[in-house]
Structures are given as structure tokens and as C-alpha cells.
Amino acid sequence: MDERYQPGSGAPGTHGNGSGMHESVATETAGEFGGVLQEQVDKGYHKAAEMLSGALTDLDEVAKVLDERGRHQASSLMHSATGRAERVSEYLENTKTQELVSDANEYARKHIWTVVAAGVAIGLLTSRFIRAAAGGPFMR
User: Fold this and answer.
1) For residues 63 and 75, is the Cβ–Cβ distance under 8 A?
2) Are residues 71 and 132 in the same domain?
3) Does residue 9 belong to any structural domain of this protein?
């Protein structure tokens, strides 16, 4: 067999057009990119969890001050919100990206109208924000 490279025949020692080699390289590159992307997303979630933890410390201090001033109902609400936010922070910190996406998909399937309502609300708020940034109710 002749092992020399011939145009259109792929790499030396292969037969055909070399598309298998290209597919292999593309698959490997996509896998590496996906791994890097997932790593970056995980870092972002961990950073968000850390920021949330810092904010929770501040909220807890505010709740203590409210309690000291006799505002027990407001303090109780603040402690309740802090507890929920702590659970969210722990969830973000301890959950991988794939699990987060899977959980979000599952929630969206079970609560479709909640997701639709949230999308509409976000759209309305965004349009109002854009309108306000443009300088008022009428575009000039």
C-alpha cells in the first residue's frame, strides 16, 4: 500500500475523504468547550452563592436591630426571608449546573402558568424600563 498523502484522501494512511477525522476533532473540541463553559457557569453560581451569603449576614444584623427596637413582626419576617435565602445559597453552592438545569426544566413543566406569568411580568418591566430610559412615555 502506498502511504503517501493524496489530495482529497484524508490523512496519510487513511482512505476516503477524512471526514471521520474531522468529526472526531469537532466532537473533541465541542466536548472541551462544553467542559470549560460548564466550569465557568459553576464558578458563576458559586460566586452568586457567596454574594448571597454576604447579603444574608447583613439582613440577619438588620433583623437583630429590629428585634432590639421592639419590631418583632418585622424581625420575624426578616428572619424567615433570611432562612429561605440561606437555603437558596446552599442549593446554588452545592448543585452542579446540569442539576440546576434539570430542576428548572422540571419546575417549568409542573408550573407552566407560573413561568408564563413570570415571563410576561419580566417583559412588561423591561419595556417600562426601556421606555423610562428613552426619556418618557413618547419616543422622540
Assistant:
1) yes
2) no
3) no
- Other CB atoms within 10 Å distance of the CB of residue 34: 10
pTM (2 decimals)? 0.44
Q: Are 56 and 89 in contact (CB under 8 A)?
A: yes
Give residue-wise pLDDT tens across range 47-81: 777 787 777 888 888 888 888 888 888 888 888 88
How far, in whole angstroms, is CA 7 from its chain's centroid?
Answer: 46
Residues 67, 75 contacting (CB under 8 angstroms) = yes
Alpha helices in the chain (DSSP H): 19-68, 72-94, 97-110, 112-134
Integer Cα distance of 36 and 54 in angstroms: 27
**CA distance linking residue 85 with residue 106, whole number of Å:** 21
List the domain range (segments joined by +) for residue 57. Answer: 18-95
Alpha-carbon distance of 74 to 71, in angstroms, equals 6
CB 56 within 8 A of CB 85: yes
